[in-house]
Amino acid sequence: MADYESLRKKYKDFRVPQVAVYVKGQKIDLTKFSLSSAVVDATAENEAAGVCELLFVGVYDPKKSRVDTTLMEALEINQSLEVRMGYGEPSCVFYGKIDEVEIQYNFGEEEGPTLRVTGIDAKGILMKAREDQSKNLESTKEVVNGILGQCKSDGAAKELKVGNLLQFETPLRQEKTSDFNFLCEVARLTNSSFFVSCGVVYFQDVLSKTDVCISLAWGKNLMRFSRSLDMSRQVSKVVVTGTKMEDSQPVKGEASDVTMAGSGKLASASYRAVKPETELENALATSEKIAKAIAQSELNQIAMHYVTCTGACIGLPEIEVGKWMKVEGMSEYVDSTYFIYKVRHRFDQQGYLTEFTLKGARSPK
Q1: Which end of the chain is more exposed for a tag (fewer CB within 10 A), N or C?
Q2: What is the CATH number of the domain that holds 70?
Q3: 125 in a domain, yes or no?
Q4: pLDDT category of residue 139 using cuts at 50, 70 and 90
């Protein structure tokens, strides 16, 4: 785990923030082309993808009275794109592919035409593959590796990390749905987080243990921080029903204890007379064990939205989605360890800033 003081020493008081852009593995010379801003959004939300936006100015050559096409030729659609931010030697904060290049001509602007480039990560590419699939699939892990493996072979991802996933007794059926939507559903059933961080595609349980990447404190290094509790979606129990394969007898599995990491009070501790439950029917629940596992996954997904925090600090590439952050210095009702759900790295004329959204299943008090 990194702490702010060690990072301050490592980066020499965070002087001279830097950004670097690589296309097809080749570094763009930012001494020739002015990068006005770079914004990277990463997320651990199963149904969303990571994106980045680069804005170049000064691409107009007044001597030749035309746009300098050298940069446009380098920023080729569908080529690999890596953005690094930091101090000294910048670190990767985004890896994916270029999906849009837009040049804007605005009369009267001092800086002349601007060039806007957007990139999407491996999940974003899967989202855009709209072709529906229909096929029977066997091993859960082999299914996930098979679909995600294409992202790696196409150069949209550097590495895959797929966990030991729940194995179902009946083949998974991908019927008239895209690979992306299918993977999101498998992630929900198997208690997996499906996200991309710096070119690595994760499809595994990262919520059951705290992999703390950084510790920040109010009054020292947190620029702003807020925390809210939301009971509206919370339940005390999830019940999943299904049918046995061999004799068509009904089966039922329940989950009432959240298995997400962290310490503190669950939402269910605040219920009074009525404790809401939710019941789901699933054709894949062919045994009590599988039904219970699906119920546990659903309960954990719901519980994660009990606590939401937002904050900002000086730009720190160490803050990554899918890991955990320890926050201190506010009160015994707030200080805790939270899951890093979303991160925005912003680099512009004001410097380098990192904003984040944290999630948790428990409140400290």
Answers
A1: C
A2: 2.30.300.10
A3: no
A4: confident
